[in-house]
Amino acid sequence: MSAELIHATAADLAHRLSAGEVSAVEVTQAHLDRIAAVDGDVHAFLHVSEQALDVAAQVDADRAAGDALPELAGVPVAIKDVLCTLDMPSTSGSKILEGWVPPYDATVVARLRAARMVPLGKTNMDEFAMGSSTEFSAYGPTKNPWDLTRIPGGSGGGSAAAVAAFEAPFALGSDTGGSIRQPGAVTGTVGVKPTYGGVSRYGAIALASSLDQVGPVSRTVLDAALLHDAIGGHDPRDATSIPDAWPSMTAAAREGLTGDVLKGLRVGVVTDLDGEGFQPGVRQRFHETLEKLSAAGAEIVEVSAPHFQYAIAAYYLILPAEASSNLAKFDSVRFGMRVDVAGGTVEDVMAATREAGFGPEVKRRIILGTYALSAGYYDAYYGSAQKVRTLIQRDFDACFTQADVLVSPAAPTTAFRFGEKLDDPLAMYLNDVTTIPANLAGVPGMSLPMGLAPEDGLPTGLQIMAPARHDARLYQVGAAVEQLLESDWGGPLWSKAPQLG
Amino acid sequence: MSEITPESVRHLASLARIALTEDEIASLTTELGAIVDAVATVQQVAGDDVPATSHPIPLTGGMRVDEPGTPLTTAEALAGAPDSDGTRFRVTAILGEEQ
């Protein structure tokens, strides 16, 4: 029973819970048992909730009493540690926030609770979401469930690994330059970065406020859609939240599973995101996928985005600039760590605290951002980067006149080994070459499994991108692609994952 | 080549209020030099005719209705503080002797 429950999709669990075939306590206990069995090896979680069974029991009691419950009531969910939670520590992977329990819930967390989902715990991440491997977590890295000697991607490696290791059916992530999609690619899971402003950032510990988006992490496209619908939509507490009404992502995914959405679909292949620096097995699976899409009736068109080559450079100016400002709040006064300095002023205490509380990548980016914003350099660096952002948006606009969706590999390589890129920041930054353009332009992107690379047997990911505000198109097309690929594989990719525990 | 020197890293660290060690200053000087050289390519592409984008999805307004809400209580606001007297955050001296 327990093994079967952890392999079920969230959609299936929701159905069986509402039908009374299984209780929320049983489902929650199965996932807690799984966490206890494998998380010593995987280390996806920084904190496991002590309230999960009580929350589940209340759902069961309300259901028994005949209450009308939301669709996902009783389904467990994991939460990236970047999100504020009233009942669990929220550290964003940093020592400077060790043990900090926020006095409020992030809007997305409040919405999970309103949907009566069962928070299982907080997942590991690179410190303040700065990284592509979780190696910059102050609490040690998460391991890739496909190969425990390899990285699970980052920054949201904990959420992706938790879902890939069947410790949760789905999870929340955040994506500033690929932190949902790149972990999805290397762990064989699904991840979606919504349109900027589509999901509230209130209570998400800010990295770069013009880039950050919260989104779903799951094993199927339909499950991601269910979670997206639960957390998305306008939030008056986030001034950048889009006030428009949104269509149902779940309905879009279901249409993709049942309809004939690939026939006549114009699929734009971004030629600038394919070639040098991409692992041969990733390219092979990508081109095989294009052939399958073509055979299913899609029209494959090559599109060019000539300014994408400057995206990483622009990103590593805009992100540090915004991060250096956002992280100024960690001042040893209102929350988090304080390192006392005998006879020192509050500024001495602040500097000593930030020296002790921040890890190497965070310091690197704060100093870089401080430099980029300095008088005399501002126009040359930050100002130029913002112009590149305009050019990248124009590239997207031009591409979307020729194609309904754009596709690329979601990550240039499969999961690399721990330590491989730790001492070379520029090599680490290249992991995000495929995902960063969508953040700079604000458009939505999805990563979904694209098969195992022949040379190492590790997952590869397909990225699908749609115009801003057209997230539903991602779910429609993503669900159709998922079904097309799985029918060829004879089942989901995760059924080929090695046994853990 | 960039103009990143140990002195400039030390100055930036003081602006950012991080008491870096000498070893960190040395390694950051090298790393930041390489990073700044790499990201400087942004200067090659955009001319004066290209406007800057600060925000990916243009929105105007963003104001919410001005009505009383339920703010944090003092105890909630102080709960995560390193030190407080129960009504306010408590810190050490704001000014040093030379100030």
TrEMBL record, chain A:
The keyword Cytoplasm does not apply. The active site is at K80, S155, S179. It catalyses: L-glutamyl-tRNA(Gln) + L-glutamine + ATP + H2O = L-glutaminyl-tRNA(Gln) + L-glutamate + ADP + phosphate + H(+). Pfam families: Amidase (PF01425). Keywords: ATP-binding, Ligase, Nucleotide-binding, Protein biosynthesis, Transferase. Coiled coil: none annotated. Its EC number is 6.3.5.7. NCBIfam families: gatA (TIGR00132). Heterotrimer of A, B and C subunits. This is Glutamyl-tRNA(Gln) amidotransferase subunit A. It comes from Microcella alkaliphila.
TrEMBL record, chain B:
The keyword Transferase applies. One of its GO terms (molecular function) is glutaminyl-tRNA synthase (glutamine-hydrolyzing) activity. The keyword Ligase applies. Residues 47-68 are annotated as: Disordered. Its EC number is 6.3.5.-. Keywords: ATP-binding, Ligase, Nucleotide-binding, Protein biosynthesis, Transferase. It comes from the Bacteria. One of its GO terms (biological process) is translation. It is an enzyme of class 6 (ligase). It catalyses: L-aspartyl-tRNA(Asn) + L-glutamine + ATP + H2O = L-asparaginyl-tRNA(Asn) + L-glutamate + ADP + phosphate + 2 H(+); L-glutamyl-tRNA(Gln) + L-glutamine + ATP + H2O = L-glutaminyl-tRNA(Gln) + L-glutamate + ADP + phosphate + H(+). HAMAP family: GatC (MF_00122). NCBIfam families: gatC. Heterotrimer of A, B and C subunits. Allows the formation of correctly charged Asn-tRNA(Asn) or Gln-tRNA(Gln) through the transamidation of misacylated Asp-tRNA(Asn) or Glu-tRNA(Gln) in organisms which lack either or both of asparaginyl-tRNA or glutaminyl-tRNA synthetases. The reaction takes place in the presence of glutamine and ATP through an activated phospho-Asp-tRNA(Asn) or phospho-Glu-tRNA(Gln). Belongs to the GatC family. This is Aspartyl/glutamyl-tRNA(Asn/Gln) amidotransferase subunit C. It comes from Microcella alkaliphila. The lineage of its organism: Bacteria, Bacillati, Actinomycetota, Actinomycetes, Micrococcales.
